[in-house]
Amino acid sequence: MTVELIYINDCPNVAMARTHLMRAFARAELPPRWTEWESGSAGTPAHARGYASPTILVDEKDVAGAEPSDAASCCRLYADSAGGSVGAPEVEAIAAALLNAQKSRRGPWGWLAIMPGIGVALLPKIAKRKHKTTMNRGDVTMNAKRKIEIFSAGCPACEETIEIVNRVACPSWYGSVAKVNVNGELAGFITAPPWECDVTPLIRNGANEIEVVVIGTLKNTLGPHHGNPPLGRAWPGMFEQAPETGPPAGGDYATVGYGLFEPFVLKQVRE
After folding, report:
1. How far apart are CA 92 and CA 182, in angstroms?
2. Which residue range forms the structural domain that includes residue 181?
3. Are 87 and 137 in a shared domain?
4. Cα(201)–Cα(210) distance, rounded to whole angstroms?
5. Residues near 98 by Cβ (< 8 Å), separated by ≥ 6?
6. Which of 139, 201, 129 is nearest to 165 (CA)?
7. Quick one: 17 and 106 in the same domain?
8. Looking at the 3D structure of the chain, how many domains does it have?
9. Residues 43, 137 within the same domain
10. 152 or 223: which carries more pLDDT confidence?
């Protein structure tokens, strides 16, 4: 499955499109991965040309159903569920496109997604990676700790000084903010792309304990929980949409999955 975001540099709605993409991946329970193309750039492929900004393609199809046109150098508005307009596709529309694309690509092995226990038993064990995690049911849903060995070596023949920058990166996560601790001290927070935190001042030679704590929001605690409410907005009427038949099944509540979807990574960059 390919997911692409087409944008122009001065469009004010690109940040909203990225936020909606992250939320849609979380709602579809898929790792957030996509490619971005600047509209009109020489490197933009042919199938991504002719769209206004921002546009989201899933398997080369616009999630809002639009076709390419000559008006690609302008911003774009989308109809929302409340009858108004917004500057990016709604989370529900993106999530639906992701799930449809995922379903169509399962093929003959799609049953593994339905019967994960059997799938795990039949598939060969390829690799094992140690990663200690703690899962909670509350709004802070996951934290991860790892011990990492770091060693530095001198270079007697070198005359220039090389500075090594250590960054903790979260390739796949969702939450309001991720807190990074190194050796028991706060190193900083991850709040925006490229989803990294410089931890160089706290890294020491030898063993280091790095902890990433993903913090969610009060959405799952306070709601609204019914009527498939859009993320990022809430008003009194949304809390009056409970089913007339009484409390629904737990799986029918609208909740958001927060946490680390893949282990964090310690990147070392020479500057």
Report:
1. 37
2. 132-217+257-270
3. no
4. 13
5. 1, 3, 24, 25, 28, 30, 58
6. 201
7. yes
8. 3
9. no
10. 223
Contact 89, 17 (CB under 8 A): yes
Of the two residues 83 and 89, the one the predictor is more confident about is: 89
SS3 state at 61:
strand
Task: Report whether 224 contacts 256 (CB < 8 A).
Answer: no
Can you say whether the dihedral through the CA atoms of 43, 45, 49, 55 is positive or negative? negative
pLDDT digits (tens, 9 = 90+) for 35-71: 888 887 888 898 998 898 899 999 999 999 988 887 6
Q: Which residue has the tokens 């996560």?
A: 173
Round to whole Å and give the CA distance between 14 and 263. 27
Same domain? 168 vs 241: no
With a CB cutoff of 8 Å and minimum separation 6, the contacts of 261 are 31, 32, 172, 173, 174
**Structure confidence at residue 196 (pLDDT):** 92
DSSP label at 26?
Answer: H
50 shares its domain with 152: no
**172 and 264 together in one domain:** yes
> Helices 14-27 and 91-104 meet at what angle, rounded to 10?
50
Same domain? For 61 and 174 the reply is: no
Contact yes or no for 88/16 (Cβ under 8 A): yes
- Cα dihedral 200, 205, 206, 208, rounded to 10, equals -20
Q: pTM for this structure?
A: 0.44
Rg over CA atoms, the chain: 22
Q: 124 in a domain, yes or no?
A: no
- Backbone φ and ψ for 174, nearest 5 degrees, come out as -150, 135
- Report the Cα 43 to chain-centroid distance in Å: 25
Neighbouring CB atoms inside 10 A of 3's CB total: 22
Length reported for the chain: 271
